[in-house]
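Need tokens for this chain, all 222 residues.
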Amino acid sequence: MNPAPAPTAPPFRRLLVIGIAGLVLSLGALLLLRSRMSSDTQGGRNVLAAAPDSTEAFARVQPFQLTERSGAEVTLATLAGRPWIASFVFTRCSGPCPRISASMRKLQSILAGTDVRLVTFTVDPQYDTPQVLGEYAERFGAERERWLFLTGSPSALADVSVKSFQLPFQRDETQPVGQLVTHKTLLTVVDADGVIRGYYDGESDAGVAQAAARAQYLSRKP
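Here are the structure tokens for all 222 residues:
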């Protein structure tokens, strides 16, 4: 007598198992990147601050649609074909933001004559309108064609900062205006294909030099 075939799991149960497995893998990848961002070192060097000629690559920037200080629409496609360096600030910040923007101004000078662009994203889009960003940009001598300042809806900026750059920020309405948003102070180098190629200290000359060297190398790379 042939043994009865083993019962199979109902289709919905199989789909549930597959879905859970996919979610676990996605969360695992995200946690791995965040863990590397906070603690991974090799020989005492933060591996996220990739060397100029490193093959290291991190997350890919996801498509976005934001508004520049000029009022022009800017998308990921707008930035395609040239390396760029991103920073996240808000104009009313009384903490590290002025230092980050000063670092971007140094990069503007160091990278003069290259095709590298600079992109500042606001983490306070409720206040930082294109006009406000325009006034802020003028304080730092930002060149309109080379250094973009982007704003948009809160959800759109959160998607860019958290989902693409893995840089969470938090808004706390109980804090003074200048401390309204806590966020990362990194300079992020993105290659011409929209892939993140390194994270650098946005508050130090060393971080500026490293980010500039990385961007220059990517600019020259065929």
